[in-house]
Amino acid sequence: MSNPPFLKLDQALGHDVVDRRMQILRQVHELGSISQAARAVGLSYKAAWQALDTLGNLAGQPVIESTAGGAGGGGARLTAAGKELLRAHELMMTARKSVLTTLADQMMHGASGQSSGGAALALSWLGLRTSMRNHLPCCIRQIRHESGAVRVELVLPDGQPLQSMITRHSAQILGIVPGMQVLALFKATAARIFSAHSTTRDLQLQGQFLQGRLTTQGYEGDTDATEPVTAEATVALGQDQKMTGFASEALKPGESVRVMVDPAAVVLVLPG
User: Fold this and answer.
1) 130-272: CATH architecture
2) Which of 3, 19, 27, 146 could make an S-S bridge to 40, C-beta 3.0–4.6 Å?
3) What is the dihedral of CA 51, 54, 58, 60, to 10 degrees?
4) What are the residue boundaries of the structural domains of the chain, listed by start?
5) What is the model's pTM?
6) What is the chain's pLDDT, residue by residue, as a tens digit (272 residues)?
7) Which CATH number fits domain 1-129: 1.10.357.10, 3.40.50.300, 3.40.50.2300, 1.10.10.10?
8) CA nearest 262: which of 203, 213, 211, 214?
9) Cβ-contact 256, 193 below 8 angstroms
10) CA–CA distance from 5 to each of 9, 12, 14, 193, 239 (Å)?
11) How many angstroms separate the CA atoms of 267 and 191, rounded?
């Protein structure tokens, strides 16, 4: 049996945006239920499991597994990777608190005796949250210059191609080169989901699409959903990666699908 993929702590914990997701993970660990964890942090059930899916994408391994039902119904628990991720996060938060306390003290009592309010404001922006629902680790395969823009050809962990269109200035500022590991971000509204057998003209005209399987979240007894999906939906890609988009036609859970993603909507993020 092949070894499980390496747990990517740097990708899963490298940005403060994951703090809310780690709160959900911690609550699942303590409560044994995604629905209870969602209530504890003030989120909807759907938002909670999507946050956990994103953590799994970034970590390169699932962080949650469903537990069997029974008299008390089904539940959820952390995988070994999820437990290690939570432990690493707690260690990082302890170290982070110490560093920020030291920096804040230095800013407020610098050598000049004046407060460094601008620097403090800059630090606060490091914890930016984003409305981008899809966070997919990728590797840059090729960079092509086209009519003043740059087309960056990416490869997902399962080998599927994805493209991003950025400006030449952005490419220079980021310093991207083939072989570099990046994070591809895009909104769910930028991803249109079609049946794998769809012959719609839009799909024929668009060269970029991902392949996967329409899925429902299997946590806490939700695996039997069979109603057609006509709006927001989750697609399972390879290597335990998942993404969110909008169905452009009625689709059934478990159905093979293709997902169109506008290259201009794909944002590249570098670690650190």
Assistant:
1) Beta Barrel (2.40)
2) 27
3) 110
4) 1-129, 130-272
5) 0.67
6) 455 565 655 555 555 445 678 889 999 999 999 999 999 988 888 888 888 988 888 888 889 998 765 444 468 999 999 999 888 888 877 877 777 667 666 666 654 444 455 555 455 445 556 778 898 989 999 999 988 899 999 999 999 999 999 998 888 878 899 999 888 999 999 999 988 887 766 555 555 789 999 886 544 444 445 566 668 889 999 888 899 999 888 888 888 999 999 899 999 988 65
7) 1.10.10.10
8) 203
9) no
10) 12, 14, 18, 28, 9
11) 13
In the block, residue with structure tokens 């780690």? 22
Say which residue the tokens 């080169």 belong to. 177
